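Minutes, methods subgroup
Present: GH (chair), OT, SY

1. OT presented the first of two proteins processed in the latest run. Sequence and structure tokens recorded below as shown on screen.
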Amino acid sequence: MLNTANLSLDQAPPISIPFRFFLTAPLFGLAAAGMLLINGPDLFLTRWSPMTLGLTHMLTLGMLAMVMCGALLQMLPVLAGSPVPKVVAVGSICHLMITLGTVMLVFAFLSGSAVGDAVALGMLGGGIILFFVAVMIALWRVKSVSATVVAIRLAVISLLITLLLGLLLGSGILGTMGFGDIASLVDVHLGWGIFGWIGLLLIGISYQVVPMFQVTPEYPSRLRRLLAPALFIGMLIWTALVLGEIFGALNEIVPRIWMFFLLSGFVIYAVVTVRLQLQRKRRIPDITMMFWRTGMLFVPVCALVWVAGNLSPGIGYNPHYNLLLGVSLLLGVGVSVINGMLYKIVPFLSWFHLQNRQMGLMCMTVKVPNMKEFISDKAARLQFRLFLLALLSALLATLRPAWFAHLAGLFFFASNALLLKNLVVAMLRYRETNRALLAYAESVRVPDGDVD
């Protein structure tokens, strides 16, 4: 049984708000897979090619950020008891601007269009700033500030830093100013996006969803209290060290040493998470846990790849190194975990919205599906296997692009197509049950109330 005693379920926004974000993510996954199928080995030549940059932002903005934004709009009022102001308008506008902005950004990378780049930066900037303002208002209204709230606050601030760095890099201002070391600032932009925004948000949300959905013990109180603030402060120091390296005030080895300590913090978090999963009370295999554990196991893998690249110049200067690290981070950690989140959050939201409506109507004649009935274990397990094949193929493609790049695209396309189908099935089952409840309300002349 799920423990929902500490959740403010009555303050959740209409289910249509998070669902539009969740359903958009696999569409970008399909588009990314299409790029792999069409361009194949060309995407694994260098991290700096326009096609590779387009693919990277399709994954980071179109998949990872899309799911994170939708989850945050839904889970913030539920976990923290503080609803996002004007959530329907904010969610609708942010979704539209981030979606169109991501599409335009990929188009600008592929075409080299300056107009497309300007439109993309404007839409992404506007959408993310609106999201930042609305979410921070809700976060600062929270009466009981938990470790989850602190981590989410720091993650949202990291999102703003990521955006500002991206706007600075994308605008071309640095080039006109004669700023030479763009590569280091790109690494800082990527660091804030992956470690700050996505990493801290996953950490904060996991404090709640891992014990609740995976039936594990709670995270240690000291780790909950200290980890996210320490990592955020560490990111600030690392950024200052990189800037010092750029301007010649520091040797390049100093920020690398500091990054080692940052990565150690994430490895500790991953090890603790896996340890909690091994202590879970429910022994039945769970797809969410399998996706999540895959992501956690890839955290130390990424750290080892990074250490190898920094200790061995032969590895670090090899073009395959950055691509291997990127695939491990984005697919191995990021996409793994958001897949796992979707397979719990979507059925849970569907169930509790319908359950609340059923209880409000006192309707016992309409059966509300349980969480397992929204998405079958068989369909979810097949999608997990397809994702693992896509992940393995993509890792091999960083070393042998001609052999595995198209195969990675094929498996990733199949994985995202099945993910989309599973989410659509859950949505249709929600709508079918919701229509039955509304028909019952009409038959007994009970006011419908707000319709999700």
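2. SY then presented the second protein from the same run.
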Amino acid sequence: MSTFDLFHVSDEERARAAAHARMAATQAAHIPDIPADTPLRPVQRVAVIGAGTMGGGIAMSLANIGIPVTLIDSSAQGLERGLARVKDNYATTVKRGKLSPADMEQRLALITGTLQMADVKDADMVIEAVFEDMGLKQDIFRQLDTLAKPGAILATNTSGLDVDAIAAVTARPQDVVGAHFFSPAHVMKLLEVVRGAQTAPDVIATLMDLGRRMGKIAVLARIYPGFIGNALFRNYTREAHFLVEDGALPHEVDAALKKFGYAMGIFAVHDMAGNDVGYQTRKAQMATRPTDRRWNDLILKLCDLGRLGQKSGKGWYRYEAGDRTPQRDPELEQFIVEESARMGIQRQPMDENDILKRCLYGMVNEGAKLLEQGIALRPSDIDITYLTGYGFPAHHGGPMYLADRIGLDQVLADIQRFHAQDGYWWQPAPLLERLVREGKRFADLQPAA
């Protein structure tokens, strides 16, 4: 059993973690097979398709660095609402004294709304930011293929869809790239740049540079369900849910995560975001998903009970009117205990160390798989993705850095223990096994040239 203290970090180690994060941010910009002096494509005007929260935030990020933006939506109401939201966001920044009224007007003047897709014609880059629906995105890219000027970069803001399948409907797959912004896009510092099989090197270099100009950390990923960030996040959330089925209660899981350094526990996050996010998709997937592994459907059952989170006054916790503080709910806890019994699970008390290991080591194991397959270039790219986009506690330096600190032999031993207990999801990554055999760390890996 590991004797590493997951909860205590010395000042010296905090300083080391901060130095690692700085190095990781610098390293992420370097792509071995794309020379640093690659000529960039001009980006003097951008069109953003979809005036929702994401599209509006992307438009602001561009206007903030002086780039004129055409914001396109399919409905007049949606466009009006989107432009009003942009104005409100800027007004809030002015109120806080972080932007002058003159600068606000200057930035708003750079954003033009339209309902005409044909207005992409002058754009050097088009960023599609509509719903996560493959059919819808492909339909838009078919139109862009006809309407956008030759050499325009066509970017899709997707959190996990196959960029190659989107590029395939165009006659210019070399110009298509994934640009996964994080919400709210004008605030969040992470940009996952997703390289398709045929994406041209200068397209990648241009988007990476644009991310830097917008004040973001751009991290390159290959195509994989969820790319880097959401691929690891799936493992984190899945184990948290299994822990609740196995014997922990939501407040116990959240308490361990907060003690580790997260600002919020995962169940409080679910309640804040809304437990119904992704509900339809997950319901639809139930019919066709493999039956050789365990799945967690508690969150769907909560939605069926009307427990949507803060917006309905109850979810994994209950909420008093006008107060967003999560309160334990005996009714919910009783429901969880009954569900465990219905599934034939003998509930066991959960130690905070095991709670943390199950949430974190699933991410480390998935990270090792991404490195092995070349989805992520280097372990530090995974770390900076997590530090920048997912609230991973900065003083721990990121999941892969933390695994090296703990000792990969100890991490693997626990993963093997969880695999023996729980099967499929804990299949140890071959890369992790190899590194342990060779007495190496993730930090010893170098990206392929």
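Chair's summary of item 2: The chain has 18 helices and eight strands.
Next meeting: continue with the remaining queue.
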